[in-house]
């Protein structure tokens, strides 16, 4: 493309844009629009028409926030339960009463084993039961 | 080697004046702002802040055409543009208390119209493929029209849609505000909230793309002739 050709093309392109710039879109029924605007600002806030799409968007946003909060609450419950459980398990090693619970399961099993409560108290106080458990007996 | 250098220099000197000519856009201030004294406008704004509906009506009458023109050029649709103008003026009424009088009112208003239009554009996400033959006919119709006669808005919408088609949102917006609306760069920055560098680079990319499309139309016209 030579200089003249390029210059002509640029000039024509410029003219098209110039044409577009000068051709102003005209607002039809301008008075009607002014009246509509004046009516809209006179209406109380509650009566203004809200497009359905905006309501739907707001609803979606609220639902996602609610889901995040629910997820957070659920996580809190789970984490709290797990940490309580871990704490209790760690206490089992040092407290013979938990060892008893684990070993016999319930008071019914205790009676089946022929051990009375005073005997159990004695076993716990001497630490014999813990030794039995750790030996796997 | 020397010949290649001479050729590069030659093409540079050949192309530069054309590009400069193409980029030589003139700024057209709106009629409303041309006939308006700043002190009058400030007085109207103060009255509106005090809840004066009559003053607000004057403001609407002054700026409705300007707001419509901008919304129409961004959206390319008459009905949507009318909705945007109405919503924008209601917003102006509601938010007039937050308007800073040290800033230009028109810039503040343009910001509201532009943001509302861009929001609507995102909701619509319309991709219109405009046939090039139709664009050539539209340009011809615009060129041959009687200067005193009002332009058909559908022709303008078609041409804007063709030029802005495929441009990213920022580029499209900046091209329309700067090159079609004739807004000064500082105002484009204030209205869009984009920094100077971003406005410049987006405008540069948009102009390149628009120029390609315009050349395409011209080639087509030439081939037909």
Describe what you observe in this structure.
The complex is a heterodimer of chains A (137) and B (225). Chain A is mainly alpha-helical. Chain A contains seven helices and no strands. Chain B has eleven helices and no strands. Chain B has helices at residues 2-22, 31-34, 38-49, 53-75, 78-95, 105-124, 132-144, 153-164, 169-180, 185-192, 196-224. The radius of gyration of chain B is 20 Å and the shape is globular. The two termini of chain B are 40 Å apart. Chains A and B meet through helix 1 and helix 2 of A and helix 1, helix 4, helix 5, helix 7 and helix 8 of B.
Give the SSE map.
The complex is a heterodimer of chains A (137) and B (225).
Chain A: H1 3-22, H2 30-42, H3 52-92, H4 96-104, H5 107-112, H6 117-126, H7 128-135
Chain B: H1 2-22, H2 31-34, H3 38-49, H4 53-75, H5 78-95, H6 105-124, H7 132-144, H8 153-164, H9 169-180, H10 185-192, H11 196-224
Helix pairs in contact in B: 3-4, 4-5, 4-6, 5-6, 6-10, 7-8, 7-11, 9-11
Major β-sheet of chain B, in short? none
Structural class of chain B: mainly alpha
Helix content of chain B: over 70%
Pattern of helices and strands of chain A: HHHHHHH
Top keywords for this entry?
heterodimer; A: 137 residues; mainly alpha; elongated; B: 225 residues; globular
Q: Summed up, what is this model?
A:
By secondary structure, chain A is an all-alpha fold. In chain A, 78% of the residues lie in helices and 0% in strands. The termini of chain A are far apart.
């Amino acid at each position: 493309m030579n200089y003249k050709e390029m210059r002509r093309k640029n000039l024509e392109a410029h003219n098209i844009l110039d044409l577009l710039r000068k051709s102003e879109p005209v607002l039809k029924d301008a008075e009607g629009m002014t009246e509509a605007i004046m009516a809209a600002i006179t209406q109380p806030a509650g009566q203004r028409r809200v497009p359905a799409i905006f309501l739907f968007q707001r609803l979606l946003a609220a639902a996602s926030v609610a889901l995040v909060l629910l997820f957070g609450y659920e996580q809190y419950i789970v984490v709290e339960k797990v940490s309580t459980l871990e704490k209790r398990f760690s206490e089992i090693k040092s407290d013979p009463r938990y060892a008893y619970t684990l070993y016999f399961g319930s008071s019914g099993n205790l009676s089946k084993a022929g051990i009375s409560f005073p005997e159990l108290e004695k076993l716990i106080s001497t630490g014999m039961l813990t030794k039995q458990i750790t030996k796997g007996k | 080697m020397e010949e290649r250098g001479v050729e590069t220099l030659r093409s540079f000197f050949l192309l530069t004046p054309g590009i400069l000519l193409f980029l030589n856009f003139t700024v057209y201030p709106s009629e409303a702002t041309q006939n308006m004294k700043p002190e009058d406008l400030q007085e109207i704004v103060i009255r509106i802040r005090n809840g004066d509906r009559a003053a607000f009506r004057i403001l609407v009458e002054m700026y409705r055409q300007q707001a419509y023109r901008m919304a129409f050029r961004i959206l390319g649709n008459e009905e949507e543009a009318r909705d945007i103008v109405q919503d924008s003026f209601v917003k102006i009424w509601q938010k007039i208390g937050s308007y800073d009088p040290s800033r230009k009112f028109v810039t503040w208003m343009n910001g509201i119209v532009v943001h509302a239009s861009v929001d609507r554009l995102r909701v619509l996400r319309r991709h219109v493929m405009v046939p090039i033959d139709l664009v050539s006919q539209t340009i011809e119709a615009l060129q041959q029209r009687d200067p005193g006669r009002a332009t058909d808005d559908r022709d303008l919408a078609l041409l804007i849609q063709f030029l802005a088609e495929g441009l990213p949102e920022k580029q499209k917006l900046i091209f329309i505000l700067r090159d079609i609306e004739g807004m000064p760069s500082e105002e484009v920055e204030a209205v869009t909230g984009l920094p100077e560098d971003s406005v410049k680079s987006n405008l540069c990319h948009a102009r390149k793309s628009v120029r390609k499309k315009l050349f395409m139309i011209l080639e087509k016209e030439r081939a037909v002739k």
